[in-house]
Amino acid sequence: MKYLVALAFIGILASLVVALFFMLRDGREGRAKSGGMVRALTVRIGLSVLLFLCLLLAWKLGYIQPGGLPLGK
């Protein structure tokens, strides 16, 4: 489970970096804008929703338990 969450976070950060690359590159020097930034941000949203649903499912199935904050601290 830890590896799935870590992999999802790496994928989310990678898609943000790709979106930044397309944002800085597209439309400069007379080039036409491509849909690269939109695709990268769509992938980021999809990965975020998938991560949330996987965590929710893992909680419902009992694979993970909420810890919360310790009382009295």
TrEMBL record:
UniProt-listed InterPro entries: DUF2909 (IPR021313)
Ranges annotated as spanning the membrane: 6-24, 45-64
Keyword Transmembrane helix included in the entry's annotation: yes
Record key words, sorted: Membrane, Transmembrane, Transmembrane helix
Lineage: Bacteria, Pseudomonadati, Pseudomonadota, Betaproteobacteria, Burkholderiales
Protein name per UniProt: Twin transmembrane helix small protein
